[in-house]
Amino acid sequence: MSGPVSTKIEDRIAVIEINNPPVNAASHAVREGLISAVLDADANADVDAIVIYGAGNTFIAGADIKEFGQPPKAPHLPQLIDEMEAVSKPTVAALHGTALGGGLETALGSHYRIALATARFGLPEVHLGLLPGAGGTQRLPRVIPVAKAAQMMTSGTMIGAQEALQLGLIDEIAEGDDIRSAGFAYAQKLVADGAGVRPTSARAPMPVAEGELDAVRAKVAKAARGLIAPLKIMDAIEAALTLPFDEGQQKERALFMELMADEQRSAMIHAFFADRQVGKVPELKTGTPRDIRKIGVVGGGTMGAGIATSALLAGLDVTLAERDDEAAAKALETVSGHLSGAVKRGKLKQEKHDAIIGGKFRTTTDYADFADVDLVIEAVFESMEVKKDVFGKLDMICKPGAILASNTSYLNIDEIAAMTQRPEDVIGLHFFSPAHVMRLLEVVVGKKTSDDVVASGFALAKKMRKIAVRSGVCDGFIGNRILNTYATAINGAVLAGASPYDVDRAMEEFGLAMGLFRVADLAGLDIGWANRKRMAPDRDPREQYAEFADKICELGRYGRKTGRGFYIHGADGSETPDPEVLDIIAAERAAKGITPREISDTEIIDRYMAAMVNESAKVVGEGIALRPLDVDITLLNGYGFPRWRGGPLHYADTVGLDKILNDIKIFQKEDDFFWQPAPLLEKLAAEGGKFADLNG
Ligand code: 3H9
């Protein structure tokens, strides 16, 4: 048979193979091939049982996401699975790799399930703004406990084979690593045992204790933060428990179609593909990554220790330098603490932890110990003078071909590179705090950085399981430059009349986990203050500079770590608005002659988004970011922008570039210096274009 699905009949078992690389997505051709293969095998008198498995690395990893948003083509996955489940011969799903979404739903529509010990299972549709729409919401609660089914579907997390076996999701774990043979042998055994068909839809839903579902729903509602899919999943599960299977499935379909039509779905699918596109940069075609096994880290503060931890978790050998023994001992303690935390969370085995502490990690006070490292990451104090000094020394000590990287979050990489005899080996690797947790990494490419070194930065990010975004050199790179701009716009809103607490409420309602001022208090107000002081000499006199954050810092209030900042922080973790902050702001308004006015939440968000989109358009227009999607991925992964809004430039496309430009023109009347429209935004708006057109 041609096409992605083929059947072989051996010893009265029909073995159906799905071969649709890279992930065996259930595309139209797969659906068509699969249903005819199953029905043919059912009709074939020489067949006693049917096995379905995937060629290559995985079983079906879900519906073909590329087809979403296009006119649907029959056979549709839900009907296919129903028909498959209704056949007269036992069907076995033989699972390896990742059985996800429509893949797991296909397995649930099979009568029996066997899997390799390494297989993983999940219904991740929620990450795409969807719900499992091929019977998953109806069948899973008939197979595993309802609360667990709800947790899997609303969080989208995967489970391993052992857990799946314990829950009853799979019937057996196969020995070895040949899933085809294991599926075949299992089908033979079922036939020999006289096992019949076992349609999941004929089973009763699993029992639920009174109030259990309500408790789950309340938890899900709290975690959803604006995302609508999780509560729709709960509605579908409720239908599974209260309605006959067919009616439950109709309800599932209706809810699925609602989500399919929603902006959240298109935003999250944009984010899914952008996550994968962002790693495709020109230097990966022309450059060859260097072998990186041993790395050096300069500085053992919050960033250095986090970077060292991240590298150790990636299996790298790490030497961390501090200025004296005391600081080195403190860094060792911090890294050990992070690693023990990883053991506690099940992310690192105890033996591996011991091997790292006993061999792969060492601290030093002498840069000479960097003589044989393949890459050094400098994470010292954010001062050009200090960094230049460090790079001059590293250049003398590190072997030829070693990469010299800076974790600076603002400073000019070209200026740092100029301190060395090897500017082509110098790059920015800007991690986000805490570096062993946050997934974003800006790979900052200087004028002279070689393609091999850029490729090495991306390879290192992959090893560390980070999402790397390529950035050109400018103050703050992609992320902090945009952050500084929208922070200025927000400060403008505060001077005009909003309180920091109004701002945080509006931003949190918009979908951010925390508003700007809450984040500032958490990160420490002194960091931004130091940066503002650095920038002060270059400040344009026309800038309407908001001073209230500086005034708060002058009182020694740096946020959570000092108990006071924009909020008053209780020992119990509570955050209360601070009337003195409001007094400081009121005094500044009075001094500047501003009469405060009512600022609605809508206006706060309009200002926030207009400033963010405008600066993003400048960042793309100047070539600092390769494409709009690079900006979206930066803001989604490093700045808490809600994934279900797709990133600032996807958001701009959905609300319309005219609306953003119009808002800028309105705010311009208040501050003509700050609100200057980006040429790219003006151009696209005039042409009726979209940022998405530039994503390639
Ligand atoms: C669903 O099933 C709905 C149903 O309930 C109802 C229907 C009615 N489709 O991630 P990778 C591409 S919703 C199309 O780099 P990995 C991906 O873009 C679906 N393409 O590999 C990339 O392409 P490229 C529910 C897909 O090894 C390439 O494959 N399922 C799909 O790191 C390799 O991907 C999911 O949400 C797809 N479904 O990870 C699962 N999946 O090379 C989504 C991947 O051009 N997928 N591609 O950049 C994943 O989570 C990961 O891809 C997976 C592999 C874990 C499978």
| Strand segment count | 19
Low-confidence spans: pLDDT under 50, at least 5 residues?
none
- Helix count? 29
What molecules are bound to this protein?
(S)-3-Hydroxyhexanoyl-CoA
Question: How many discrete domains?
Answer: 3
CATH overall fold name of the largest domain: 2-enoyl-CoA Hydratase, Chain A, domain 1
C-alpha end-to-end distance: 36 Å
| CATH architecture descriptor text of the largest domain | Alpha-Beta Complex
> Structural class of the secondary structure composition?
alpha/beta
Characterization of the model:
This protein has three domains: 5-263, 2-enoyl-CoA Hydratase, Chain A, domain 1 (Alpha-Beta Complex), CATH 3.90.226.10; 294-471, Rossmann fold; 479-694, N-(1-d-carboxylethyl)-l-norvaline Dehydrogenase, domain 2, CATH 1.10.1040.50. It contains 29 helices and 19 strands. The strands form four sheets. An eight-stranded mixed beta sheet has the order 12-11-10-13-14-15-16-17, with helices on both faces. It has a six-stranded mixed beta sheet with strand order 1-2-3-4-6-9, sandwiched between helices. The two termini are 36 Å apart. The chain is globular. The chain is an alpha/beta fold. The structure holds (S)-3-Hydroxyhexanoyl-CoA. (S)-3-Hydroxyhexanoyl-CoA (3H9) is lined by residues 22-23, 25, 61-66, 77, 98, 100-102, 105, 124-125, 128, 130, 132-134, 136, 276.
